[in-house]
Amino acid sequence: MPHSVGTALGVLLLALTLFLTWKQRRNRALHGLAAHSMIRDVLRVVLIGAVLGGFVYVLNSYDGIPVPVLLLLVLLGVFSYVTSQTVFGRRVYAVGSNMEATRLSGINVQAVKLWIFGIMGVMCAFAGLVNTARLAAGSPSAGNMGELDAIAACFIGGTSMRGGSGTVYGALLGALVITSLDNGMSMLDVDSYWQMIVKGGILVLAVWVDVSTRAGRR
Asked: Which of the residues 49, 113, 152, 156 has an alpha carbon 20 to 30 A from that of 27?
């Protein structure tokens, strides 16, 4: 995409950060709650601005922001809002945390699960369209074993195996870790079977850390 679009996107995201920070401080003041330190909020905005500036600068140096990255950012914002600010998002966490208690509280668990699997199917189809458009070719084996990367990314990003916790941002960070690992092993010409073993080992380690930390809290 053109450089101007990337710059405009960075400015828009920074303005959104400023607006959300101001709204948070105003809401806390209206409800009589103690607001965070002004220095803390300023430093957070400056840090986010620096990250956005570096992100836009790097991508603009490579002929602008790729369309798949732009789509990823849009979906990241949409699903982050849905999971944290909507009733449906709260119900998703409730179903993952304790399905029986959620059912007894009057929530239609089967409907929530149906919506979740439906959204997952739509996202898989969307990913297939983006991949086909990027490669200008289609293959029935495209995305084979991608489910291992997706599951590992979620666990690395902090999603609990027992459900009820995790964030969209955490899953994205986990996906970046897995992708970086994939690219690094490919550049080192590591055999594909060893790559699967390494990623499987990381997945087992992430699950073990999750189980052990939750057991320690009890």
From this structure: 49
Q: Does pLDDT of 218 surpass 60?
A: no
Q: Are residues 71 and 22 in the same domain?
A: no
Specify burial of residue 97 (Cβ count, 10 A radius: 0-12, 13-18, 19+). middle
pLDDT category of residue 26 using cuts at 50, 70 and 90: confident
SS3 14: helix
- Look up tokens 């992430």; give the residue: 206
Same domain, 158 and 211: yes
Long-range contacts of the stretch 52-60 (C-beta < 8 A, 24+):
52/10, 52/13, 52/14, 53/10, 55/10, 56/6, 56/7, 56/9, 56/10, 59/6, 60/3, 60/6, 60/7
User: What one-letter code names the amino acid at 150?
Assistant: A
DSSP for 103-143 reads HHTT--HHHHHHHHHHHHHHHHHHHHHHHHHHHT---TTTT
Domain containing 83: what range? 65-137
Classify 166 in phi/psi space as left (phi over 0), alpha (psi -120 to 50) or beta: left
Considering the domain architecture, whether residues 101 and 149 belong to the same structural domain is answered as no
The tens digit of pLDDT for each residue in 112-141 reads 999 999 999 998 888 888 888 887 777 777
Asked if 133 and 151 sit in the same domain, the reply is no
pTM: 0.70
